[in-house]
Design a protein that fits this description.
It is built from 1 helix and 9 strands, in the order αβββββββββ. It is an alpha+beta fold. It has a single domain, classed as Cupredoxins -  blue copper proteins (Immunoglobulin-like, Sandwich). Strand 1 and strand 2 form a beta hairpin.
Length: 105
């Protein structure tokens, strides 16, 4: 291998290492007054998409006050996760609908 090729390989490797991993989309369903899955995990930067399959309005409301997503009937709502931690959340309109989201760095 010539020095020029070696330099190209090193530069390509360094560029590949500096590109951040793609964020994931975590899907959580609200159907028949149940949040599923009841416990989900994600990473900071991921998007959580709640899918409301019910004919009722729901919310995904963090107990710690970090977020409150409104979900009209048969609609989706989403949120990009900004910080790590375990967040318990619920539907403000149907408090028996509860779940936990574990967010890692």
């Amino acid at each position: 291998m010539t020095p020029r090729w070696s330099l190209s390989i090193v530069v390509a490797w360094m560029l590949a290492m500096s590109i951040p991993a793609h964020a994931a989309t975590i899907e959580i369903t609200m159907e028949n007054l149940v949040i599923s899955p009841a416990e989900a995990s994600a990473k900071v930067g991921d998007t959580v998409e709640w899918i409301n399959k019910d004919i009722l309005v729901h919310t995904a409301t963090a107990r710690n006050g970090d977020w409150d997503v409104n979900l009209p009937p048969k609609k989706n709502g989403s949120l990009v996760l900004k910080k790590a931690g375990t967040v318990d959340y619920y539907c403000r309109l149907h408090p028996n609908m509860k779940a936990t989201l574990v967010v890692e760095t």
